[in-house]
Amino acid sequence: MPLSETPLLRALRGDRPDTAPVWFMRQAGRSLPEYRELRVGTRMLDACLDPALAAEITLQPVRRHGVDAAIFFSDIVVPLRLAGVAVEIEPGRGPVFADPVRTASDVVALTSIDPAEVAAASQPIRDAVAIIAAELGERTPLIGFAGAPFTLAAYLVEGGPSKEHLRARAMMHADPESWHRLAGWLARVASEFLAVQADAGASAVQLFDSWAGSLSREDYRTFVAPHSRAALEDARGRVPIIHFGVGTGPILPDMRLGGIADAVGADWRTPLDEAAQLLGPDVTVQGNIDPALLRAPWLVLEAHVLDVLRRGRAARAHIVNLGHGVPPDTDPAVLTRIVELIHSGRA
Amino acid sequence: MPLSETPLLRALRGDRPDTAPVWFMRQAGRSLPEYRELRVGTRMLDACLDPALAAEITLQPVRRHGVDAAIFFSDIVVPLRLAGVAVEIEPGRGPVFADPVRTASDVVALTSIDPAEVAAASQPIRDAVAIIAAELGERTPLIGFAGAPFTLAAYLVEGGPSKEHLRARAMMHADPESWHRLAGWLARVASEFLAVQADAGASAVQLFDSWAGSLSREDYRTFVAPHSRAALEDARGRVPIIHFGVGTGPILPDMRLGGIADAVGADWRTPLDEAAQLLGPDVTVQGNIDPALLRAPWLVLEAHVLDVLRRGRAARAHIVNLGHGVPPDTDPAVLTRIVELIHSGRA
């Protein structure tokens, strides 16, 4: 079976394979003991830039769970590190930038970096993707990814994680010229990072706009959607595109980015039948098992998964996933059991 | 002018005073230098339980900004502390409980405390409210408040702040009996705390369900709304009720709690004309200046405030507020200027 006939890629085209494809955001990561073991003594971004290590971590959940896709083990700030931006990921906190990008001159300085630097410095990424693609062969597609301009900007402008992304959202209104310059540059950075992964063997890409749900619809449309679309323009037609954000119920139709997204992810708040209705008949839905339910007894979780599958049938096709990433303290056996349930065809 | 004719209380009845009433969530707090000075050397919960100090902090923003309401300086975990629960507020982190409430037996142990203990231990609250009410006289109403059962449970079950409230949301499904016991008990705790404030002179109350926006509509209706309603049942008819949560656009109509709320707050994501349409003609809207815009140049912020006022006219009445609390690093002069703009009647 060629890769193009795997359930994930079929579902992204709008076909309905016999059983819905399933993968989990953050399936490669702290929920797996074999991951925690490999990571001992290695900082997050160093792990992302070690081809053998990043490849092995990417493959671990495919072997363990039998999911229908690998997701490249990396981080949304990796292309910024590759472009020369000083960033670290602090355990338990998240990305922290040595120099927050707050003023017009900060933005000018950052955006003077040529986004092509990302591609130039991406040999470790190419190498990792090549190892993974060779190992997966025609059985399992690899999903590449990038952070969307707004989510990257939310970290950059604040200098680290923030709850309501006040500084980035303020910049949109206080200095729209700087905002658009910054977001436009981040779109090119994301685009370069996606192209590297697609060139090296990724079969699909996902744009993560984790914090898009913090925006009003008007701000999303004016200040964010055009840049997210620009980030995906080069990938369009080359590889199928998944677009995901948390808390995006009220802006779900906008997450289609004018039809550029082949699939749109919904978090646990929006039932998939409602999502399908909001999104229309030309897009695949992805999601949306509630990560909270991974802690519930199996019978409760099973009923929830079956309900998610049932509601997903309202869409042209459905890629099963969680409503957000795998919580680090998840029992991995539960994830395997979900995959088995879905592949059993009982749903 | 009797208190009942002040703009806030008129707007809560659905009248339209000449200028819309305005107050700010967290107006009493870290944005004010006079607050930071008073708080030196005093822990948050100790400050809440010192009647003279809590009264003075409550009054500071009324004097400085000329807002149309005082909001009682306290914290949503204060009634839990009064009931004997071991809780502290850690600066920069939030409420932290010595003993998280995670198991059925944890819930049984906690809920064996008689909620009447809150009232029995509330003399410092009564004294503070009495000082404030005497000082405000008939000019300015005082708003009392309590945390809603879900938001309190989100902290209690986790043991502290959490992003997606996974443990509390898991308990709803994994052990609904324990969940309803816990939330029912928290409703009685909140009800006692509101009654103490209303008895001592608060003219209105607000129920803060800050994290309600993390729930699907179905979970909100099944596991949360009945308990929030129960928390307000005693206040109903005695004092007007405001109900607020963040990210509640998709569940806004449910936030009316079957008509028990006189006003429903919207955060910055939902334009007030849309909120008014979702809520219907029998409820006042509160909000929803974007806290991010407090950092923008005045002309940008002014245009935004005028837009909020314009959209608020779609509701039967409008109480101007932010879409969430005042960020700690806000320039207080900006808040004063907003109050002056609204009171100028230019809008």
Automatic annotation (TrEMBL), chains A, B:
GO cellular component terms attached to this protein's record: cytosol
Catalytic activity: uroporphyrinogen III + 4 H(+) = coproporphyrinogen III + 4 CO2
One of the GO biological process terms: protoporphyrinogen IX biosynthetic process
Binding positions for substrate per the UniProt entry: 26-30, 75, 155, 210, 324
Keyword Transport (UniProt): no
Molecular-function GO terms, alphabetical: uroporphyrinogen decarboxylase activity
Top EC class for this record: lyase
Alphabetic keyword roster: Cytoplasm, Decarboxylase, Lyase, Porphyrin biosynthesis
UniProt subcellular location: Cytoplasm
EC code: 4.1.1.37
Pathway(s) this gene product operates in, as recorded in its UniProt entry: Porphyrin-containing compound metabolism; protoporphyrin-IX biosynthesis; coproporphyrinogen-III from 5-aminolevulinate: step 4/4
Residues of the Uroporphyrinogen decarboxylase (URO-D) domain: 21-30, 143-159
Gene3D superfamilies: 3.20.20.210
Transition state stabilizer (site feature) positions: 75
HAMAP family xref list: URO_D (MF_00218)
Function (record text): Catalyzes the decarboxylation of four acetate groups of uroporphyrinogen-III to yield coproporphyrinogen-III.
Similarity field: Belongs to the uroporphyrinogen decarboxylase family.
Quaternary structure (record): Homodimer.
Protein name (database record): Uroporphyrinogen decarboxylase
